[in-house]
Design brief:
197 residues, mainly alpha, 0% strand, globular
Length: 197
């Protein structure tokens, strides 16, 4: 199974756990744009650049748009501001700094200054040693900022933002709109791409 197929499968699983208001926020939040043509609300500009570089490696542009192209970095900052409590916002911000410190310890430079190969090596190492998110992401309680699951939270929010963005909804995904008639044996090829309208 290739990476895109795995991500599409994950999106369908994540879709079942989202409420209508969350989905509306997600779709409105992901607007295409350049790397940092936006003003972060929760994280600093330097942290936003690190987050953008991380998202660009997790969801790079291929034959489909990448995470940066659909505004996933902005979405994460916006949902942190509008949904999560201050302690989670602060821990997420600290998590970016700890992630950057790890990159600097391994290669002597901040994450954004590393080559793609080095960035991928950092991500693989962090992926390997990261524990799964504890229970529900939305009820996350923070005790120690050093133990905050920054990478896992970033990855989950990136997938949610990516697959709920308008551009991906219309250009990539095929989904039978709900509400609508139930057709139990509808061929996937006939569903169409405009699932968000």
């Amino acid at each position: 199974m290739n990476r895109r197929e795995a991500l599409k499968g994950t999106a369908m699983i994540l879709g079942y756990a989202l409420t209508g208001s969350t989905i509306a926020t997600l779709i409105q939040s992901c607007e295409p744009g350049s790397k940092l043509s936006w003003t972060p609300q929760v994280i600093s500009e330097g942290q936003a650049k690190t987050l953008s570089a991380l998202i660009d490696r997790i969801l790079p542009s291929t034959d489909t748009p990448g995470g940066i192209e659909v505004g996933v970095d902005r979405f994460i900052d916006k949902i942190l501001c509008q949904v999560f409590p201050v302690d989670v916002q602060e821990s997420f911000s600290t998590g970016i700094d700890i992630f950057n410190q790890y990159a600097k310890a391994q290669y002597g430079q901040q994450f954004i200054k590393l080559s793609h190969v080095e960035q991928d090596a950092i991500i693989s190492a962090v992926e390997e040693k990261s524990d799964p998110l504890p229970g529900s992401l939305w009820n996350l309680s923070v005790k120690d900022a050093a133990d905050f699951p920054f990478y896992r939270m970033t990855k989950e929010l990136a997938l949610i933002g990516y697959f709920q963005s308008e551009r991906i909804s219309k250009e990539v995904l095929k989904y039978n709109p709900i509400p609508g008639p139930y057709i139990g044996c509808l061929p996937y090829s006939e569903v169409g791409s405009n699932w968000s309208e």
